[in-house]
Amino acid sequence: MNEHVLVVLPHPDDESFGVAGLIALKRKAGVPVTYACGTLGEMGRNMGSPLFANRETLPLIRKRELQDACKAMDVTDLRMLGMRDKTLEFEDIDLFADRIESIIQEVKPTLIVTFYPDHGVHPDHDATGRAVIHALKRMPAEERPETYCLAITKNRENVLGAPDIILDIREVAETKMEALKAHRSQTEGLIRQMEENFKKGVPQVMNWFETETYWHYQW
Amino acid sequence: MKPIIPSEVQTYLDQHANKDVYIHLETTTGAYNAHQNENSMTVVAFIRNVKFRYSLAKITGFGPFRVGLKMEEGWTYAEGLTDFTIDEQNRLILAGHHPDGKLAIALQISTVPFPS
């Protein structure tokens, strides 16, 4: 079976923070990657420092940043779902799942990556993970693609156990950095801080560019 | 966006009194607030494209600024506003930013709906 990765996340930059290493490794191996991004991060709070965005220009800026990040990671197929930031948990979950299901039918992914429901911290993260799982539960268990979930709550290991996928991403660390830098409006301050910490040798910072961890969804 | 010039904001507010306008009003701590600091509650509210008519509007304070809009049967107000722009579509965009550029509050007025 031909491999195909489908990433479903709500905000431009979620993919760069969480999945850039996996995407870059898969692309290096020639595996096509489809990324379905729910919103344009319209409600983001980072407006650039010094300011270069406002509430109305931010979505346009973040759309471009998303496209640039996808270029950096060599994502082969970017889908923008056109929902609004901060509203996903209030959408009709059946309709949300229908849209994901139609992409699943079309690209026939062998691997899906999304947020672990209830472990996403941001309500949009949880809503997206829930919609993906909702769509997958409509399929017979044996036909479901492998499902990797990002979990970022503090109690994740207490609830879910240790992560079952620990991916060494060191060989694509530079790609991850480029993807993060593409989201300039959201990451500029962070990257500045990161580079300072890196110079000081703070070990937590390097971890970002060394490993990515995922949990298989526990059906 | 640039630091608020109260007279320019007041002129815009006066020009749009007693007319149908659309507002966007928002305050936010960011969705990760409680995740980063357990002693702090995450609080966000926003309302967008409410059709609206005010009879009186004022910008007050010495920076950060406050804006109050008096309606026939109520009030709308925002505090903590630091920056503004009147964009090419003649929309008034007011925002309050933390020193690091993060948005904390927004109040916007337009004669046509904002994109949904």
Automatic annotation (TrEMBL), chain A:
Recorded superkingdom: Bacteria
InterPro entries per record: BshB2 (IPR023841), GlcNAc_PI_deacetylase-related (IPR003737), LmbE-like_dom_sf (IPR024078)
Gene3D superfamilies, sorted: LmbE-like (3.40.50.10320)
Pfam families reported for this sequence: PIG-L
CC cofactor: Zn(2+)
NCBIfam families recorded: thiol_BshB2
PANTHER family to which the protein is assigned, alphabetical: N-ACETYL-ALPHA-D-GLUCOSAMINYL L-MALATE DEACETYLASE 2-RELATED (PTHR12993:SF27), N-ACETYLGLUCOSAMINYL-PHOSPHATIDYLINOSITOL DE-N-ACETYLASE-RELATED (PTHR12993)
Protein name from the UniProt record: Bacillithiol biosynthesis deacetylase BshB2
Name of the gene encoding the protein in the UniProt record: bshB2
TrEMBL record, chain B:
SUPFAM superfamilies: Hypothetical protein YojF
Superkingdom assignment: Bacteria
Protein name: YojF family protein
Organism listed in the record: Metabacillus flavus
